[in-house]
Amino acid sequence: MRIPHPLAKVQEVEATITDEMAQIMAAAQKYMTGHRRVTDGAEVLDIDTYASREDYDAFLGEAGAAVKKYGELLGARDTLYEDIPGGD
Questions:
Q1: How many structural domains does the chain have?
Q2: The dihedral of CA 18, 20, 26, 29: what is its sign?
Q3: Average pLDDT over all residues of the chain
């Protein structure tokens, strides 16, 4: 998820939507196999990994409304990429 704001702004917004963050985190613990957060100072990129497309869909099934609100508040854009075998 690409978030067009500095990390401090992202954390500020996250602190105001505790119910949504709890929903996202609960679903993340069930379905994500990994998470990284990186920044260039001007924007944040959250890189979430899932074992399968089905796990990603299940994550959104449980936390989709919270993810949508998060995205709307921060102008974030979610993009799904597929792993390329042998791309390491």
A1: 1
A2: negative
A3: 95
Q: Facing residues of 77 across strands? A: 2
Contacts of 33 (CB under 8 A, 6+ apart): 49, 50, 51, 55
Model confidence pLDDT, tens digit, residues 23-54: 999 999 999 999 999 999 999 999 999 999 99
Dump strand ranges (E) for 1-88: 2-3, 32-39, 44-50
Domain contains 54: yes
Residue 28 lies in a domain: yes
Residue 81: per-residue pLDDT: 86
Which domain covers residue 9, as residue numbers?
2-74
